[in-house]
Amino acid sequence: MTTDRMLKFVDTAKRSPTKRSADERATDFGEIYAEFDAAGAGEQAGRCSQCGVPFCQVHCPLHNNIPDWLMLTAEGRLEEAYEVASATNNFPEICGRICPQDRLCEGNCVIEKGFESVTIGSVEKYITEKAFENGWVKPVVPPRERTESVGIIGGGPAGLAAGEQLRKRGYQVHVYDRYDRMGGLLIYGIPNFKLEKDVVERRSALLADGGVNYHPNTEVGVTVSMEELRARHDAVLIATGVYKARDIQCPGVGLDGIYPALDYLTASNRKGLGDAVPAFDDGTLNAAGKRVLVIGGGDTAMDCVRTAVRQGATSVTCLYRRDRANMPGSQREVANAEDEGVVFQWLSAPEAFMGDRRVTGVRSHRIRLGVADATGRQTPQPIEDSSFVIDCDMAITALGFDPEDLPSAFGTAELKVSRWGTIGIDFRSMMTSLDGVFAAGDIVRGASLVVWAVRDGRDAADRIHDHLTAKAAGASRDAA
Ligand SMILES: Cc1cc2nc3c(=O)[nH]c(=O)nc-3n(C[C@H](O)[C@H](O)[C@H](O)COP(=O)(O)OP(=O)(O)OC[C@H]3O[C@@H](n4cnc5c(N)ncnc54)[C@H](O)[C@@H]3O)c2cc1C
C-alpha cells in the first residue's frame, strides 16, 4: 500500500548525489559520484509514483522489485529495502553503480516525461552501502550441505552469481579463473572511477566466506582440461566472457603505439590495484604526456578516453563512425567524457595509421549515414574527398569483442557454437551440447551488460539444480 511518503515527484525535483567537478576527478581514479545521505535517499525514493505497471521493473533484466524498495527507503526501513533489493540481485551495489540506468530502469520510469525519472541507481547503491555498514549483508549459510559439486569456469559476474545461488542450495561450488583475482571484467575491465575495486573484492570475499571455493590462476584448457573438470564435478558451468578484440583493417595497423582497449584498461586497473605492471611503468600502456586517439563508440571506448584523461594525456580524441544519437555507449558516460575534456570526432572513420615505426596520426574520412540496414541502423557511407589527419602518439582500438574459439581451447570439438562463436545452449535447460555442461553470460549472449550476466548466472544455477535433482531422482529409481 502506498504511504503518504510517496508520489512526491509532483513537488520534489530530481536530485542526484553530488558529482565531483571534472577538474577534480581528472586528478584521480576515485568514483565520481558521492553517496546520498539518509535524507537525500529518502526524499528521492519518495518521488516514485508507485505506478500500477512498474516499467522500471519490467525493463530491468533482473526484474528487481524497484517500487517496493524505493517505498521502504522512503519510510526509512533500510534493512527491509536491502532484503528486497538483494532478493533478485546478487550484486546490487555493483548494478547501482554501473548499470546503464538511462537505458533500463530510469529510462523507462513512468514519471520520466515532464518530471524526470527517479534516481533508482543511486538509491540502490545507497541501500546496499548502508547494508554493508550495518552488517546486514551476510555470507550464505545453506540449510543443508549437498555432496554434489559444480565447477564454474570464469569468476566474472555470471560465474559468481551462479556460484552464490548454488551455494544457497548447498552445492559444493568451485570457481576456476585464469586471472589471479575474481571478478572478471568488474576487476580488470571496468575502471575504478565507475566501480572501485574494493567494492568488487568485498563481494568476492563474502562469497568465499559463504563456502565458494576459488581456484585463481587456473586456465581451463591449459592448467586443467575440460575433461578433468567434467570428471571432477557433477555439473560444469562455462562463464568465460568474450575477450577476442575485433581487429581494425587498415594500412599501418601494425605500427608501435596502437593497442587494444582491454590491454590498456587492464594495465591501468592492475596499476590501481598495486600490481607491478612493467608495460605501464615503461610508458608503453600509459597515456601520460601523450596525444591519445581512441577509435570506437561503446562503453569500452568511453572507459579508455576517461582513463587517458586521468593518466595525464595532453589531449584525448574519440573517433566514431556514427553520430552521437547512434552511439552504442551510455549517453551518461559520453556526457561525463565531454565534461572531462574529451573531444569527439563524430561521423568519422579511420583510413590509415600514419608513421614509420610508431604511430604519429590517423588519417580518417567523414561519414554520412545512409539508409537503414536489416537491423534498422543507418549504414555509414564514406564521403568522397573528406580525408583529414588527427595527430596522435598513442591509438587505442575499442571496436568490440568476439568469443575465443572455445571448442579448440577446451579440446571439445563436440561443444556447439553459433556462427559468431558464442556457445549454443538449449534455451530451456541452458545446457550446451555436452551433457551436464551449462553456459551463461557474455559467452552465450556476446558482449553485453553486468546485469544480464547476473541474470544468466542465476538462471543457470536454477537449471543446474533441476538437472542434478532429476539425475539424483533417476539414480534412486535405478537403485530401487
Ligand atoms: C571496458 C568494459 C567496460 C564495461 N562497462 C560496463 C558497464 O559500465 N556496465 C555494464 O553493465 N557492463 C559493462 N561492461 C560489460 C560487462 O563487464 C560484461 O557484460 C560482464 O562482465 C560479463 O560477465 P561474464 O561473467 O559473462 O564475463 P566476464 O566478466 O568477462 O568474466 C569471465 C571470466 O572468465 C575467465 N576466463 C575466461 N576464459 C577462461 C578459461 N579458459 N579458464 C578459466 N577462466 C577463464 C576470465 O578470466 C574472466 O574472469 C563493460 C565491459 C568492458 C570490456
Pick out its properties.
19 helices, 36% helix, 5-stranded parallel beta sheet, alpha/beta, Fumarate Reductase Iron-sulfur Protein, Chain B, domain 2, FAD/NAD(P)-binding domain, 3 domains, 480 residues
Please specify the SSE layout and strand pairing.
Elements: H1 22-25, H2 38-45, H3 55-58, H4 66-74, H5 78-87, H6 92-98, H7 112-115, H8 120-133, E1 149-153, H9 157-168, E2 172-176, H10 185-188, H11 197-209, E3 213-215, H12 226-232, E4 235-238, E5 244-245, E6 258-260, H13 261-272, H14 278-281, E7 291-295, H15 299-311, E8 315-319, H16 331-339, E9 343-345, E10 348-354, E11 361-372, E12 378-382, E13 388-391, E14 394-397, E15 401-402, H17 406-410, E16 437-439, H18 442-445, H19 450-479
Parallel strand pairs: 1-2, 1-4, 2-3, 4-16, 6-14, 7-8, 7-14, 8-9
Antiparallel strand pairs: 5-15, 10-11, 11-12, 11-13
The structure holds flavin-adenine dinucleotide.
| Domains (count) | 3
Which CATH architecture of the largest domain? 3-Layer(bba) Sandwich
| Mean pLDDT rating | 95
CATH class of the largest domain: Alpha Beta
Distinct small molecules bound, one entry per kind: flavin-adenine dinucleotide
Strand order of the largest sheet: 3-2-1-4-16
Q: Which quaternary structure do these chains form?
A: single chain
Principal-axes geometry comes out as globular
The fold-level CATH name of the largest domain is FAD/NAD(P)-binding domain
Strand count, sense and barrel status of the largest sheet are: 5 strands, parallel
Low-confidence stretches: none
Strand content: 15-25%
- The chain-level structural class is alpha/beta
Number of helices in the DSSP assignment = 19
Radius of gyration over all CA atoms, rounded: 24 Å
Kindly state the percentage of residues in helix: 25-40%
- End-to-end distance, in Å? 52 Å
Instruction: Supply the CATH superfamily name of the largest domain.
Output: FAD/NAD(P)-binding domain
What is the β-strand count?
A: 16
